[in-house]
Amino acid sequence: MVMVLYVALRVFLIPYQVDGASMAPDLRDGERVFVYRLAYTHLDSGALLDALPWGDRDSGDVVSASAPERGDIIVLRPPTTSGKPYIKRVIGLPGERVTFREGLVFIDGQALTEPYIEGAITSCFHGPWCSLTVPDDAVFVLGDNRQDSTDSRFFGTITYDHIIGQAVFSNWPLETIGPVEHPDYDVTSPPT
């Protein structure tokens, strides 16, 4: 019974250890979280049901989880040569224009209030990723510790197929045990 429970949990949740300070102060170097693998999974029931003799291709999706939301902390396979997964926060969503100005992140011309940033400003060094529209099936990600993060400012957007899952629960050290918090956002007019 214990083995069945263990295998079932591993299908849905995988452990991940934060490596580095890019998500400080919310997630610290060495902190351990569980990552929900199926958070953004989409299974086409047509392909599955066609394999069954009684299958009906028009019956809809078997599983259709939500798309990533702004503020989700995700674990991803970076489009760089690094073999290690990264952990970052989703900032820009498909179709949104992400720009950097005056130390702030702007979404479609509106300043993004980021309560998890402790006084740091967000800079971008005039590269191709400093002002872009996020393509379909992709997200723009940033580390919370903007001065110490390799993220979409350096490697561009992340397609959904590079997302391993969503960090949902911190399990080590003891003082951090609990759900990974998801911020409420306030998007305001740009400063004049």
UniProtKB/TrEMBL annotation:
Annotated Gene Ontology cellular component terms: membrane
GO biological process: signal peptide processing
Keyword presence, Protease: yes
Topology relative to the membrane: Single-pass type II membrane protein
Active site: S22, K88
Domain Peptidase S26 intervals: 3-172
Family note: Belongs to the peptidase S26 family.
Protein name: Signal peptidase I
Organism, as annotated: uncultured Thermomicrobiales bacterium
